[in-house]
Amino acid sequence: MLHLSRRRDWAMNLAITGGTGSLGRALIPAFLADPLVTRLVILSRDEAKQEQVARDFPDPRLRGFLGDVRDESRCRLAFQGVHTVVHAAALKRITAGAYDPLEFIKTNILGTVNVVFAALAAKVEKVLLISSDKAVEATNLYGKTKAAAEDFAIQANTYTQPQGVAVSVLRYGNVFGSRGSVVPLWAEQARRSRPLTLTDPSMTRFLITLTEAVGLVQDVLEMMQGGEVFVPELPAARMGDLAACLHPEQPVSYLGMRPGGEKLHESLLSQDEVRRVRRVGPHLLAVVPAVHPWRQDWPGKWEVPQTLCSRDDPLSRGELQTWLGR
Predict the structure, then answer these.
(1) How far lies 54's CA from each of 18, 26, 67, in Å?
(2) Is 45 inside any structural domain?
(3) Does 20 have pLDDT greater than 70?
(4) Known catalytic residue: 134?
């Protein structure tokens, strides 16, 4: 059961931007499982995916809105009567960002600005921006746009909080097996008896399942007060080990690092953020903003964790097999 509303005696309405993506589709049944949710708005640009979502989830509480986060007026219409917005819409492919940089800026940065202002105009109470570990000490345009979106979302509380809108961020790594990730690509290559394409076997990435990501969103929506960047503690693995565990009989073709600023290792916290961390759950941290005039007290215990870099302590191949077999 979700606990998103401060007034549980009235039914809840929610909206998901990018709601036809991997996370959005996983959130739909989780939100609809709450009988107090009376309306769930799915905002996305793709009419075919909207139609597929309607077929997959034939629930009268579900409302599809064709629209783009680049259009603030459309977001404002979609958010009317909504209590909580999960902002998951983003352009994500690193190489695409190198070739079409302005499109990433329009969607990831200006789209976040539009979502926050539309939420403010529609009197939404909570906005949660879904972010990425690539925003930490970013080396590519995607990461830099997410870092800018994070900064805007957090500091927007300066003027949203007095009007009753709390804005927070949830940052995690690539979702295992999500659309566009390497796992379904490898599965297709193995099905066609082709070599698995791999950039660098020593490359490390954090691991999180779609189910875990949904649970994180639910937990954070319940505890967020506005201004936090929530960061889960996640295991990491070497990509060479992951390929070997998933498809042990397949040969591997090494491609080298992709253009556009791909990292060999990812981090969930920057060196500066490590000094502003509170523990808010067994495996969940919250980064407090350096400047926060809207709030002086923060829940949780101050903690100085080691830098959460994916290279620090990756899973052994045996531990990875165990993780995959859960």
Answers:
(1) 15, 14, 16
(2) yes
(3) yes
(4) yes
- The answer to whether residue 188 sits within a structural domain is no
By residue range, what is the domain housing residue 34?
12-173+210-233+277-307
For residue 303, tell me if it sits in a domain: yes
Q: How far apart are the first and last CA of the chain?
A: 23
pTM strictly above 0.90: yes
Q: In whole angstroms, what is the distance from residue 154 CA to residue 123 CA?
A: 18
Residue carrying structure tokens 């829940």: 299
pLDDT at 10 over 80: no
Residue 89 placed within a domain: yes
CATH assignment at residue 227: 3.40.50.720
Q: Is the pLDDT of residue 326 over 60?
A: no
Total tally of structural domains belonging to the chain: 1
Options 134, 144, 146, 263, the catalytic residue: 134
Q: Which residues pair with 85 in a beta bridge?
A: 15, 127
pLDDT per position as a tens digit, 38-79: 999 999 999 999 999 999 999 999 999 999 999 999 999 999
Find residue 229's DSSP bridge partners: 169, 287
